[in-house]
Amino acid sequence: MLRIAHLETSINMGGQELRILDQIQWLLSKGHSAWLLAREDSAIYEEATQRGLPSHPVPFRGSLNPQAISELVRFAKSEKVHLLDCHSSTAISTAVTVRLLGISVVRTLHVQTFKMDLIHKYLWRCGIDHVIVVSQGIADKLVGLGFVDRDKVFVIPTGIDLNRFAPNVDGNSLRREFDIPESTKVISEIAMIRPDKGQKYLIRAVDRVASAWPDVRFLIVGSATKPEFFEKIKEEIAALRHPDKVILTGFRKDVEKVIAASDVIVNSSPWEPRSQVIHQAFAMKTLVVASNKGGDVESISDGETGFLFYSEDAGSLSEMILSVLNNHTGPIKEKAYLYAHSVFGIDKMMEKTLSVYRMTSTAT
Predict the structure, then answer these.
(1) What is the pTM of this model?
(2) Would residue 167 count as lying in a domain?
(3) Which of 63, 176, 227, 354 is within CB 3.0–4.6 Å of 93 for a Cys-Cys bond?
(4) Are residues 338 and 351 in the same domain?
């Protein structure tokens, strides 16, 4: 059995962090040893502790923090770790020192953007054994820039718990919480609030949709990574003719209830790496509308499993939402549901991930 430490330096909680926790939980259920190594003041560390997952605090601060390096080396030696799975650039910088001890390193890249200076290119070339990415677009970018060889990178989209995200989940309690009648159409976006997630495009589509379909509500679900991002979103809402149609829910752990309460799930990010919320909505037979750029186009077949709008175009987004609300979409929901079950189950994701771990690991 493998002994795997997952390194995450972010202090926030979003899809990337939730995927890490799901991976650890799955590995433990299959008899492997797995840990989360993260900052003690981070949201992921708190959530791991609440779930009872093995966690160890590491004071990640900057790229080469002596305390973090020392603690990582000590932990890797004491726990006889076979492999480090690093989920951020800071984690890689720290893990390089442990790799000198003969411990293998996998870099899982969840995002489209990464540092591209010569030092980080060297770390990609010389400090990593294999790379896991969530979309082919990210893999092509890494290879094209010369950061990694094609045979070292593996595309593994985020898998989901098909028991948790199922069509029979009841979303009525969430509608009652926000005083939304059963007859009201609900359009939701679930993502961290920050500029690259593009919530402003959905907000700018609100007035046009609400004018044509008055009985509608828009849920913006997620917390802001910085206070100024939240303020910007509130300013966008305040500028609307129909600001009362928008509800800011904050971060929610019951994402499945949000999806169940929704008629349409939107991802308005102009360049989403590949949203697991799309896969969750597929599995719950909830319609999906997303940007036509980024990794979501690898999950959505336009007009067959979901719908794509022109990226960064609020007019296009509003037209697509109204089209979805006005048309019969039962066959699309069914096709997306079957697709999710054939491709996006967490077991499929982790079997592929485990295969990469095994070819990388120093375990004998």
Answers:
(1) 0.93
(2) no
(3) 63
(4) no
